[in-house]
């Protein structure tokens, strides 16, 4: 099968809207890819700049019609916000997945993690490899929201291991000063955060896998998309943590109702969009956090952060940390 690659390079805020439009026409999903900048050879690389959104149309007899409809949809989106023209590249007689895979590179995250495409060996054996073959579920590790989540997850788990040793390194250079004092860390340290994690909207399973590899004993990943669960299962197997990961179809309501092995955990992770996070708080998301536990919230655009913090506060949480990459913000909030 031949394919036609459609790609648009846009800013972070537009990327999602463009991805939504392309997804309507691409049967195999959409890939987003943000550039990584390196200051020098030792630099670990920071996601910077615009995002390339790519989708692959099957080059069949409907191609011209599909392309026209796609152009129309992009035109309407362009009326709301200016868009660059899409770039079309034929991918002849080749699996587009392979074309995409060849662009996907290892990404160092935080102090100890490295996201490695499943088909590659890690270039840095000192880091814990998280092998990911996203199989078209969200969570390739290239998105800033995932990277922020992983950093706060690592921070929270490491802080537990060495309550005094971790603080200095986490402060976000771009973002506001860290919140919370040492007393909150002492309080959190009394709670065995390393025991269990609940991952809401697990996608590829990347966050659960990282938590398990960083020392969590068990994790529960839930998602409203069955494809995500399949992908999470496969990625967990590739990382040798499948036995410690439970997966279930659903969201906050199902976890609260006790449908899965865990209904509460000292650490909850939720990388979903800000308006969904606010809704999930109203659906009882804070109940999933064990007393003195914490939640990592991501998928939040800078101007939306306030609304998410307020929703958390309304449900008895307190902001501990805030990190930012480009327009994206992630929050660490604690209970009690
Ligand atoms: N956790 C991964 C994937 C994040 S993408 C990462 O951090 O990279 C967000 C995921 O949330 C998607 O897989 C989507 O299907 C799922 N999702 C969206 N709305 C949801 C909801 N209300 N409850 C649970 N999952 C949801």
Descriptive overview:
This protein is an alpha/beta fold and 336 residues long. Helix content is 33%, strand content 30%. It is built from eleven helices and 14 strands. The strands form three sheets. It has a seven-stranded mixed sheet, with helices on both faces. The protein has a four-stranded antiparallel sheet with strand order 2-3-1-4. A hairpin with an 8-residue loop joins strand 2 and strand 3. Helix 1 runs antiparallel to helix 2. The protein is globular. About 8% of the residues have low confidence. The structure holds S-adenosyl-L-homocysteine. S-adenosyl-L-homocysteine (SAH) binds next to helix 4, helix 7 and strand 9.
The rounded distance between the terminal residues' Cα atoms is 56 Å
Largest sheet: 7 strands, mixed
Radius of gyration: 20 Å
How much of the sequence lies in strands comes to 25-35%
> Within the largest sheet, what's the order of strands?
10-9-8-11-12-14-13
Summing up helix and strand content along with how strands pair, one would put the structural category as: alpha/beta
Element order, helices and strands? Answer: EHEEHEHEEEHHHEHEHEHEHEHEE
Residue-averaged pLDDT: 84
Please count the helical segments: 11
What's the β-strand tally?
A: 14
Low-confidence stretches: 167-192
Bound ligand species: S-adenosyl-L-homocysteine
- As a percent range, the share of helical residues equals 25-40%
């Amino acid at each position: 099968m031949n394919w036609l690659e459609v790609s648009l390079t846009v800013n972070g805020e537009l990327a999602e809207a463009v991805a939504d439009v392309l997804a309507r026409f691409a049967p195999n999903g959409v890939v987003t890819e943000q550039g990584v900048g390196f200051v020098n050879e030792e630099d670990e690389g920071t996601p910077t700049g615009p995002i390339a959104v790519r989708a692959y149309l099957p080059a069949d007899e409907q191609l011209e019609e599909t392309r026209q409809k796609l152009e129309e949809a992009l035109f309407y989106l362009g009326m709301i916000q200016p868009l660059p023209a899409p770039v079309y590249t034929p991918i002849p007689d080749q699996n587009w997945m392979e074309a995409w895979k060849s662009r996907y590179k290892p990404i160092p995250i935080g102090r100890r993690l490295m996201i490695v495409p499943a088909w590659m060996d890690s270039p840095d054996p000192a880091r814990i490899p998280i092998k990911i073959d996203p199989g078209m579920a969200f969570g390739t590790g290239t998105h800033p929201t995932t990277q922020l989540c992983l950093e706060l997850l690592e921070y929270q788990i490491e802080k537990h291991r060495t309550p005094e040793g971790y603080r200095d390194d986490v402060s976000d250079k771009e973002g506001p000063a860290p919140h919370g004092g040492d007393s909150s860390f002492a309080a959190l340290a009394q709670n065995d955060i390393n025991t269990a994690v609940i991952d809401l909207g697990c996608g590829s399973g990347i966050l659960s896998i990282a938590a398990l590899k960083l020392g969590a004993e068990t994790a529960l990943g839930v998602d409203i998309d069955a494809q995500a669960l399949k992908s999470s299962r496969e990625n967990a197997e590739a990382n040798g943590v499948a036995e410690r990961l439970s997966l279930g179809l659903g969201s906050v309501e199902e976890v609260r109702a006790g449908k899965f092995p865990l209904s509460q955990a000292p650490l909850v992770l939720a990388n979903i969009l800000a308006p969904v996070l606010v809704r999930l708080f109203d659906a009882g998301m804070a109940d999933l956090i064990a007393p003195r536990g914490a939640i990592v919230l991501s998928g939040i655009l800078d101007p939306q952060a306030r609304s998410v913090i307020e929703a958390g506060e309304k449900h008895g949480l307190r902001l501990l940390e805030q990190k930012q990459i480009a327009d994206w913000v992630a929050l660490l909030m604690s209970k009690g």
